[in-house]
């Protein structure tokens, strides 16, 4: 069987699409928007949220990353549940729960409740988002699937990138809570379209779900992300060590469970295929770079450059535009040159973006220096989305596309959560260290109360609050806060460069070249068709 499968040329994989394919794909894009919009919309509102709650930088990091955290925790388990019990049902449930999650966030009376609402919203999105890609993988086949994934991924990325502009417009007339409410009408439209256009059952699995493995995956991702975020807080070192210990134990138990389970949540044999695990790691870095750069960029433009919320949101548009422009070319490159070449090109563009941010993004820069970095970032994500997602779906049986779609979503969510958490932790530590140095150099250092020192080192928002309380020192406090912010984000951009270089080396060494990739894809497809054909008599 393997020899015959290997002989099948990739071009022989049929190109198939469902009835009313355009309407079905548009429905899935709108449904994905319910999950995509809240990802970055909070970033523009962070300065306002910080001022409203006098929040620390770590708390603001958790507001930004909470949604990705909820998504990353849940996509694997919920994707498998959708495969087993109905993808349409899971999609509808996620879209429905997105509404109360948005309401709680919009009217949150404390920063802690807002963080909790963000995590809840992420879990709701974890029900909806993996199902969308799973349905594309189940309903489309061959080159048509690649094109559909390219359009879906690019549109989703563009919606994510346009979220800050929408937030900025809202903040010109309303309080920050309205930013979280805007997803509600989109969710209502998506519910109507899904009910009308999406089939109830499409090539779903009959295997039982490994629920224990799902719980372990949630514990693993959740404790890891929280540990990274709290690492910047000196008083929480014991908690951080405990969280990392729990994450390590959950990882060991998860691997053991997946090796022994009759129907594992995450088939490690499939995950070991180079077209799967290398593409997954590559996607984590590419999408994480987008989320991390947008997270830092919104604060940089408002805090350091003094942009309004609208200007800061609009500044990201070049990234969204180039994602959409490049995505169709990405699909063509995958077929012409292979996923390896396309992914390496993607990483080169992201690398250039981080270099520009590190070297050019300083106080007083003109907008074109901001735009050029976002253009390269958009090119990188537009190039990387298609090969990473398509490689995952092409590496698994169609009855287990929930695993592929869950991993594809995990790329965005875990990548976003990790990069935002790492960037945020480095920003917080760099800010605190630089501010401590500035305070020590002040001739009035001895006279500054310890409570004010703590506030100054906590976050830019806290420093600005003190600047209002002490107007005679406001110029010095604001200048020190800007310099401290720039010192912190330089550490973050350096970390981004390191991750991009490591990812590019991994892809170059481990991902198969075009001819070998085609043989592997054809073999997986032939084995899938044979397995489905063998299952028909048994079911009959």
Which topology of the largest domain does CATH recognise?
Growth Hormone, Chain: A
List the helices and strands in order. HHHHHHHHHHHHHHHHHHHHH
Query: Mind telling me the C-alpha Rg?
Result: 23 Å
What form results from the Cα inertia axes?
Answer: globular
Parts with pLDDT < 50 across at least 5 consecutive residues: 1-11
Strand content: under 5%
CATH superfamily descriptor of the largest domain: MFS general substrate transporter like domains
CATH class of the largest domain: Mainly Alpha
The biggest beta sheet is recorded as: none
By secondary-structure content and strand pairing, the structural class works out as mainly alpha
Measured as a percent range, the helix fraction is over 70%
Summarize the structure in words.
The chain contains 21 helices and no strands. The protein has 540 residues and is mainly alpha-helical. The protein has two domains: 2-207 and 273-444 and 473-539, Up-down Bundle (Growth Hormone, Chain: A); 210-264. The longest helix is centred in the last third of the chain and has 41 residues, at 401-441.
Write the layout of secondary structure elements.
Layout lengths: L1 H5 L14 H33 L3 H29 L1 H20 L4 H29 L2 H30 L5 H5 L1 H15 L13 H20 L6 H24 L7 H4 L2 H31 L4 H6 L2 H21 L1 H22 L6 H28 L6 H41 L8 H9 L1 H10 L4 H37 L3 H26 L1
Features:
Growth Hormone, Chain: A; mainly alpha; disordered N terminus
Give a concise summary.
The chain has 2 domains: 2-207 and 273-444 and 473-539, Growth Hormone, Chain: A, CATH 1.20.1250.20; 210-264. 82% of the residues lie in helices and 0% in strands.
């Amino acid at each position: 069987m393997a020899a015959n499968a290997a002989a099948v040329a990739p071009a022989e994989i049929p190109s198939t699409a469902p009835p009313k394919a355009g309407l079905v794909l548009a429905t899935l894009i709108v449904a994905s928007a319910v999950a995509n919009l809240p990802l970055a919309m909070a970033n523009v509102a962070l300065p306002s949220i910080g001022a409203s709650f006098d929040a620390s930088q770590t708390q603001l990091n958790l507001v930004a990353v909470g949604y990705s955290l909820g998504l990353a925790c849940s996509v694997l388990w919920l994707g498998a549940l959708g495969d087993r019990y109905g993808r349409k049902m899971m999609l509808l449930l996620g879209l429905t729960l997105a509404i109360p999650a948005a309401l709680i966030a919009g009217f949150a009376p404390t920063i802690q409740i807002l963080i909790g609402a963000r995590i809840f919203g992420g879990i709701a999105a974890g029900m909806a988002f993996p199902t969308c890609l799973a349905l594309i993988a189940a309903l489309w086949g061959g080159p048509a699937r690649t094109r559909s994934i390219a359009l879906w991924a690019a549109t989703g990325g563009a919606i994510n990138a346009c979220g800050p502009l929408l937030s900025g417009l809202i903040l010109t007339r309303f309080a920050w809570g309205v930013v979280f409410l805007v997803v509600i009408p989109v969710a209502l439209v998506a519910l109507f379209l899904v009910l009308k256009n999406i089939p109830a059952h499409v090539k779903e699995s009959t295997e039982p779900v490994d629920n224990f493995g799902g719980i372990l995956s949630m514990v693993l991702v959740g404790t890891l992300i929280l540990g990274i975020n709290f690492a910047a807080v000196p008083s929480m070192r014991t908690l951080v060590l405990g969280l990392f210990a729990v994450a390590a134990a959950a990882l060991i138990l998860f691997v053991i469970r997946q090796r022994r389970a009759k129907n594992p949540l995450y088939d490690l044999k499939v995950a070991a295929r180079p077209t799967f695990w290398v593409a997954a790691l590559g996607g984590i870095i590419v999408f994480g770079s987008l989320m991390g750069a947008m997270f830092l960029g919104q604060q940089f433009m408002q805090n350091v450059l003094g942009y309004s919320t609208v200007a800061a949101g609009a500044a990201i548009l070049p990234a969204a535009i180039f994602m959409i422009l490049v995505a169709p070319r990405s699909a063509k490159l995958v077929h012409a040159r292979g996923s390896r070449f396309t992914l390496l090109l993607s990483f080169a563009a992201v690398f250039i973006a981080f270099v520009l941010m590190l070297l050019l993004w300083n106080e007083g820069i003109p907008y074109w220096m901001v735009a050029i970095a976002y253009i390269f970032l958009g090119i990188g994500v537009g190039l990387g989305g298609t090969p990473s997602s398509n490689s995952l779906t092409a590496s698994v049986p169609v009855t287990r596309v929930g695993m592929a779609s869950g991993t594809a979503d995990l790329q965005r969510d875990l990548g976003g959560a990790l990069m935002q958490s790492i960037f945020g932790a480095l920003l917080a530590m760099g800010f605190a260290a630089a501010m401590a140095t500035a305070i020590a150099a002040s001739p009035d250092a001895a006279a500054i109360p310890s409570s004010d020192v703590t506030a100054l080192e906590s976050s830019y928002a806290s420093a600005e609050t003190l600047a209002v309380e002490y107007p005679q020192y406001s110029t010095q406090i604001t200048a020190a806060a800007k310099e401290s912010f720039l010192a912190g984000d330089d550490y973050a951009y350096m970390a981004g460069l390191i991750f991009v270089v490591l990812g590019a080396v991994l892809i170059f060494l481990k991902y198969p070249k075009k001819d070998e990739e085609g043989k592997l894809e054809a073999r997986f497809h032939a084995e899938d068709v044979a397995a489905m054909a063998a299952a028909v008599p048994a079911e009959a």
